[in-house]
Each structure stands twice: as C-alpha cells, then as structure tokens.
Amino acid sequence: MLKGEGLWFRYGARLPWVVRDRTLSVLPGEVVGLMAPSGYGKTTLGKLLAGYLMPTRGRVTLNKQLLPSRGYCPVQLVFQNPELSVNPRWRIARILREGHPPQRHYLDALGIYPGLMTRYPHELSGGELQRVAIARVLNRNTRYLIADEMTAMLDANTQALIWKVVLEFACQHHVGVMAISHDRPLLTRICQGHTIKLLIDSIPASLAKA
Asked: Which of 34, 43, 138, 198 has its CA 20 to 30 A from that of 23?
C-alpha cells in the first residue's frame, strides 16, 4: 500500500498551508481519482506521495516503509509538462532505459517509433515528449503511478489512447494508479470498472457538483 498519513505542507513558515491534514492511500491494482479545482493543492499532494517533497507534518509510506531515497523509486509521478520529468541532456533511448526498458508493445501503442530514440527532448513535439515521459514509467520497477493532469494538454483521441495503454499496464502488472485532475468526466471514464475513490471531500460541495 502507498499511504500518506496526516499530511500537512506549506512552502514557507509564514505562508498558508497548501495541504492540510490529508490521509489517503492507494492499493496495488487500484485506480484512485483525485479531483479538485486549480489551486487546491492536488499537484503538491502528488509530489508528496511520490517523494518529490517532504511533508511538513505527517509521513508517506510504501508497504509501511519510508520511500527509498536512492535508485529508481517504485512510486513514479508523470507531470502535465513532460519537460519536468526528463533529463534534457539525455537521448530518448537513455531516458527510456532509466528505470527498466518498457516492453516494445507499450512503445508501439504510444506511437514511439525507433526513429525517436537518437533524438534529444527538445527535438520532439510536446505530445511526443509526453508519450516518452509516460512510456518511461511503464516498466517492471514501477509499482505506483501518479498521473498529474498528464493528458490535459492533449486532444481527446490522444487522451483516450494514452489512458487505454496506461490502464492496460496497470491491470497486467497490478500497479496502483492515482489520477489527478479537475476534469470529473475524464476521471469517471478512466476509473470505470476499477476500485475507485473519488476524493472530492477537500473542496466545497458547490464546486464538487460543478
């Protein structure tokens, strides 16, 4: 289980709390939707669960142990902007080998053709680079995937394709997924048929119904 317990976080001692007393968990093979409008701390919470940030209070554990501080973390975060999750000095082939090379099946499904392998991130379009960032985490060392608005900048057809591939991977490898979005219809579609928690209790009821 990936679990955040009593999480509090703020970016400075005199600044307001971004995350206030949040406890949530993701089980292996479970798909969790985290919905809230912009500015409600969704991305910060995702960074806390993936180990990018340390909570001001509370703790994050993986199978009751703290997240590893070295090596490939089994909790992977895919950002909305792919430039944040790849090394700009590495060629695409090396980026894809960072954790463990993804199966060719997933590369083909995401449209990552062999000609991209020798290129650098700046030589790819935004959509191509995002598919690379997603493929990078679809490997046997990933046990939990946190998707922070990872398809928000893509068209509907590409969104559907990417989520089909990601959910197929999660199902086959029993990977827990947390999908972070303000788009309730999207979360409803991708969470269908899975064990779901739609976490909207942190926002006003009037906004949750919007």
From this structure: 138
pLDDT at 26 over 90: yes
CA neighbor of 139 nearest in space, from 100, 178, 92: 100
Do 86 and 78 meet the contact criterion of CB atoms below 8 Å apart?
no
- Which of the pair, 129 or 41, is modelled with greater confidence? 129
Checking 36-43 for CB contacts under 8 A at 24+ apart, the result is: 36/182, 36/199, 36/200, 36/202, 36/203, 36/207, 37/182, 37/203, 37/207, 38/182, 40/202, 40/203, 41/9, 41/202, 42/148, 42/180, 42/181, 42/182, 43/148, 43/149, 43/180
SS3 at position 28: coil
Range of the domain at 19: 2-208
> Do residues 156 and 14 lie in contact, with contact meaning Cβ atoms separated by under 8 Å?
no
CA distance 61 to 26: 11
d(CA 153, CA 131): 12
Q: How many domains does the chain have?
A: 1
- Please tell me the pTM assigned to this model: 0.88
Model confidence pLDDT, tens digit, residues 111-145? 999 999 999 999 999 999 999 999 999 999 999 99
